[in-house]
Predict the structure.
Amino acid sequence: MNHTLTNQEKMMLAREKAARKPNLKRRKISQSIAFTLMWLMGFISIGALIWIVGYVLARGFPTINMEFLTTRPAGGFEGEGGISTTIVTTLYLVVLTIAIAAPLGIGAAIYFVEYANEAQNRSKFVRWLVRTARTGVEILAGVPSIIFGLFGFAVFVSFLKFKFSLLSAGLSGACMVLPVIIRTTEEALLAVPDSLREGSLGLGATKWQTITGVVLPAAIPGIVTGIVLSVGRIISETAIFWVTLGGSYRLPQNLLSSGRTLALHVYMLATETRAFDKALGTAAILIIIIMLLNLAINLSSKYFQKRLSGK
Amino acid sequence: MPRETLDSKLAQIKNEIYLLGSMVEQAVLDSVDTLRTRDLKEAKRIYDEDNIINEKRYALENAIIILLATQQPFARDLRLLAAMLLVVNELERMADYAKGIAKINIKIGKADIAIPVRDFQQMAEQGVSMLHRGLGAFIEQNPNLAAAIPQEDDIVDQLYNKVYRTAIEDAVAHLENIDQANNILWIGHNLERFADRVTNICERTLFITTGELMEMDSSDDENDAGGD
Amino acid sequence: MQPSQFDENPKIIAHNFNLFYGDFQALKEINVDIPENAITSIIGPSGCGKSTFLRSINRMNELIPSVKTTGQIKMDDKDIYKQDVVELRKHVGMVFQRPNPFPKSIFDNVAYGPRAHGLKNKAILEEIVEKSLTDAALWDEVKDDLHKSGLALSGGQQQRLCIARALAVEPEVILMDEPASALDPIATLKIEELIQNLKKDYTIVIVTHNMQQAARASDYTMVFNMNPDRSGYIVEYGSTSQIFTNPHEKITEDYISGRFG
């Protein structure tokens, strides 16, 4: 590369330089086009979203009043009554499912992250077990909810004779959200730096003290996210609860009572009655609940961020 | 690659010390030579040029301190630099002896007295030879060479004893010449101290290589005449 | 080996200590006496096992499942590998390279250790927290803000918080793994001063890459090096002043005058 340029080479270079100038203009134009397209896509997506939510809310709002919210559904082709019991049933179901799934899921995640490594090195069987369990969790996380529903129907409703009940639905729902809770908790635990664990152990704390005193508190935001995601799923699922909870519009008296969630009620109103407006009303309530849930996630995550990074 | 900067700066300082050493050697030899030639202008020049030696000494000291601060040396490097500070000081004091001899020369002036020039020349040459080799051993960090030099101090001491005795006898015999006897003694004293300081330089050489400071005296201190 | 001029009681004695990660030998035949109430620094090129040896003293190396040790490390004449490890860590504290305060308040950080060991009395905890923060030269800066999060402090303050946290457990030995390497020069000097004050009550062992720090801040210096088979061994061990002005071994001389490799 050390020779001086011949006249011919100089000319070629000049020509190339001239050719490059309009290139800049061309590049700027393609950038503008790309940006415009992206803006467009964004608008379309958000627009569609707003349209759907807006339509439901707008059409559903007129049906919503105190009576609607506080009377129970009365059945019938006209879809008499309100949605009081469905709101309560949904609440019961969420609490029950999380009460079953959260301890199991968090416990399993703690085992995988904090204990499995040690145990793995001692026994080939344990290593195989952990590997299988991990793969299982991955697979189950993608399984459609109806499968859990059918499983629940076969095992809890029929075999264990729990019949259509909160118990059956709760257990089935727990199976459904367990993989999600395990996965998010695992990730939250893995995100806690080892330096914190070492710091705690170095002070003479036991492993369990370290987990409860330092690791879990630091992992709470992630764990809460997983639980809230699960709550969202429970509120919005229909198929799984259709085959385990039944459809009773009465207020559940105990764990073995049947019941109906909000999402199920929307489905039933839409398919078995003419009360399309009530269906939309219920759907509107559902959407509002989900929006409140999202708000709760955002607020709590901001709260935890502040606490963790110093007041 | 490691410590290239430190090593090259050390090499520079070593060269400068050699240079300073030659200046000192030259000054002493010249000062004794002017005793022979009685060239008082030359003596004045030697006297004045001591300033140049002083300045050089301070420049060297400064360079060494800067190197200590910027290179943070440890172990042998540290001992070498610390020893260099002391050696540079010794060289400057040795140059002062040459200056002292020139000053006495000027003081004696045109007086017609018997100066034992031969003896002084021998002392000076011996001392300069010791300095030359001692400084070489220091720069090369050769402990064996350094260990062999201090005993040569005996030669200088014997010559000094001879000059001392002659001068005292002369003074006793001719009391009016006491001042001159004193001057003779001073010249001899300076040359004797010159050789002594070479011993200090040799001690420092051993310090660099072994990490220990030891006294290395010549054999016969009790029988020496005159102070220390 | 013993440092040349010391006649104090050794607090910790390593005797023919070897450490393996699986088949790889990381430490070979370590024999040292670590004096009580003094600061011993461990220096040497990277990868020679300095941190590995440090972490052997409070058995933190056991967090790696494939670790095996032979030989002994004794503290107060008791083999620490035969003791309960949780109990051991009450007597041997550790401060790490990067400050690692818990995401809790300053108070809860310092009180964490005593609480883990069962102390519940609020008054005593408050006393311990104040004393530890004072000994760590942090009390004056945080005494009005004990409920602020530990993460809101500067890097140097966080490290002093970690030191206070270690002191709260009232150990006899404090191990420090390059405690100032993540800090700015002023914070570093503060930590060094702090260590000087601590040594009258604690035995301190500090791993450092910074030669000047080892020279400034320690009483005894242990020099590690790597064997051809990549296991670590001790080249020389002596008083800091001797090691840095007149080392006996050529490897030591080369390493500390920067003429290594």
User: Anything to note?
Assistant: Chain A has two domains: 7-63, 68-308.
